[in-house]
């Protein structure tokens, strides 16, 4: 595999997970975020998650230490000049991602592949905002990255075959299973998953059931490992709303209209687990439903 150094832009829940699996597979990682606190929290999360793997016996202490030593944190973009693959995993807003690409492209080496972990935004449109649409890919990881096996690979209209093959080789190398999705809003997993979550929020909004009733119904009645509202909190309600907006606008179909209650929670800053409050309140010992 040609990829030896991976740059990760955004050290939030997905970015730190991507850094974790890359470092554990022997790749050098440069982890960047605009928020220095996010880098510190990201590194602490990686450390804690690696420790959990040691405790479970899936890796040993030496592997954990080696993985941590392969991750270099950087508040500036310049360090990313060393990477063969840069994976953007910042906030799910097109303008944020476009600004990152504008800043990062002059820094990246000519051969570097630029990828995005977007959950829903058009790969072709994002690629067109860069200086390398042929070397641009969607590499969509699942949450939590260390535990979830799947990665969706999404080509833009201009992505060349070498870029696809190198990205597929990268996914194989880190021990994940790749599926290929075409470049349509939200690809495969979120095209199916997010409307279900949005419908669960409508079910709550219309008073059909409480938070607890809806999650229990789907866990025990449909055999889902997590209830849809618990899952929404886990994904992040801002990310859920952004994905629904991309589906609604991109497919121009009213069936994807984001539930007004989801909009209200995001406006309140109740973004789910990462904000300690969403459909559940996580500030106490055990999560408490908010409705
Ligand atoms: N949450 C999920 O379940 C999930 C799953 C798959 C993919 N994704 C995608 O991954 C991406 C990140 O999501 P997340 O859940 O990790 O979000 P998050 O809110 O946990 O983290 C986002 C990070 O991006 C950083 N950021 C914002 N602007 C930046 C900039 N200009 N430069 C560098 N860093 C910047 C923020 O400081 C923050 O640390 C999104 O595109 C999202 O759609 C999320």
TrEMBL record:
Residue intervals of the 3-hydroxyacyl-CoA dehydrogenase NAD binding domain: 5-183
Site (Important for catalytic activity) residue list: 140
Key words, A-Z: NAD, Oxidoreductase
Main EC class the enzyme belongs to: oxidoreductase
Residues reported to bind NAD(+): 10-15, 33, 92, 97, 119, 143, 274
3-hydroxyacyl-CoA dehydrogenase C-terminal domain span: 187-282
MF terms (GO), sorted A to Z: 3-hydroxybutyryl-CoA dehydrogenase activity; NAD+ binding
Gene3D superfamilies linked: N-(1-d-carboxylethyl)-l-norvaline Dehydrogenase, domain 2, NAD(P)-binding Rossmann-like Domain
A Pfam family matched in the record: 3HCDH_N
PROSITE patterns documented for this protein: 3HCDH
GO annotation, biological process: fatty acid metabolic process
Enzyme Commission code: 1.1.1.157
InterPro entries per record: 3-OHacyl-CoA_DH, 3-OHacyl-CoA_DH_CS, 3-OHacyl-CoA_DH_NAD-bd, 3HC_DH_C, 6-PGluconate_DH-like_C_sf, 6PGD_dom2, NAD(P)-bd_dom_sf
Homology family: Belongs to the 3-hydroxyacyl-CoA dehydrogenase family.
Designated name of the protein: 3-hydroxybutyryl-CoA dehydrogenase
Species whose genome carries this gene: Candidatus Phaeomarinibacter ectocarpi
